[in-house]
Amino acid sequence: MGTGEERYLHRSVRLPPGHGRARASFGFRHEQGTGDGRRAIWKIIWGCPAPPKVRVFAWRVVTNSLATWANKASRHLELTGFCPLCGVEREDGFHALCRCPLARELWRVMALDWNIPKVEAIVNTGPELIFSLLDPLDETARLVVLMTMWRVWHVRNEITHDKAPPTAEASRRFLHGYINSLMCIKQHPDGNLEKGKMVVLPSPPRAPESTAPKVRAHWVPPQPGWVKLNTDGSYIAATGAAGGGMILRDDRGEIIYSACRELRTCDNALEAELEACREGLELALHRSNLPILVELDSAEAVSMITAREMDRSSHRALIKEIRRLAESDAREISFTLCSRLQNMISHELAAYGRSTPRTAVWLTAGMDFVINLALAEKPP
Ligand SMILES: [Zn+2]
């Protein structure tokens, strides 16, 4: 939010005749109430594992110091307080973060992954809305709610700055990786994991009564002298958007490379899986001389690649290419099935490549969420 917000606050704004031009400023208003209730609010906000910029954003909501159109109009910095996005009503913090169609859509897609309140059920309790919202929630839900509101405000600012806003789905993916990495840091501040402890995932409290056995699977490093490649594909049938994610690590869990890719010509999820595997393997062959264990979470893809007979499906060219790459090298290369939890980083990378859309390779590194997740998956 930072830069957009600042640019927003410091640009020249229209004033009624006679007022000339001025710079808008919405500083914090610490003086607004200092009772016990206030202290409880700050405790909830500052105790949340959200990044500082998100907590500052929450502070601004509580102190009613966001540069909403209603706030600007009350200072004669805008002629009207109506929402610049939908125009339906005054844009106060509640409208911008919970009522505007843009906000509602992001709340809706976030609720697909996390147990957060339904946006329709949120009541406008004024600037202290955040407190009444967060108070009854557990820590994970508090984090998700704050991150969602922060993201809504960011997207809203992109639009008011005439930038192309990210789709709700892109924001969902972005927040998913971000929140997971934040929770890893929170749980494992030293990155010092007990063996067998898995990376934090959003507990789906949506179905707490589920009797399904708890999946404890976690990424396992390859045996010494080997490297492990995890790849995954991401495909959205409705739009045809696809992406691939890959990460190569050694037996100490160190990243050799991580990569994401937008897949432009992809017809289905299996093709995205295979395409990510092909590209991941090609990169891995260049980045290490050690034998490679390739892990995918698609049973179909693994069985197609490892089948003895020639593939006759529409994917035969891709299968053939993967096999050719694997046989082009004297070292041992094998393919195996893993669980989705074991494939989480490449999964997130694939979604990132698809939704941004972006293609990139990072050597011995990766985006923040990749580094944090990899740190959490490192062997002790
Ligand atoms: Zn609106």
From TrEMBL:
Coiled coil regions in record: none
Every Reverse transcriptase zinc-binding domain range: 39-107
Superkingdom of origin organism: Eukaryota
InterPro entries in the record: RNase_H-like_dom_plant, RNase_H-like_EbsB-rel, RNaseH-like_sf, RNaseH_domain, RNaseH_sf, RVT-Znf
Domain (RNase H type-1) ranges: 230-351
Gene3D superfamilies per record: Ribonuclease H-like superfamily/Ribonuclease H (3.30.420.10)
MF-aspect GO terms: nucleic acid binding; RNA-DNA hybrid ribonuclease activity
CDD domains linked to this entry: RNase_H_like
Protein name: RNase H type-1 domain-containing protein
Organism: Aegilops tauschii subsp. strangulata (Goatgrass)
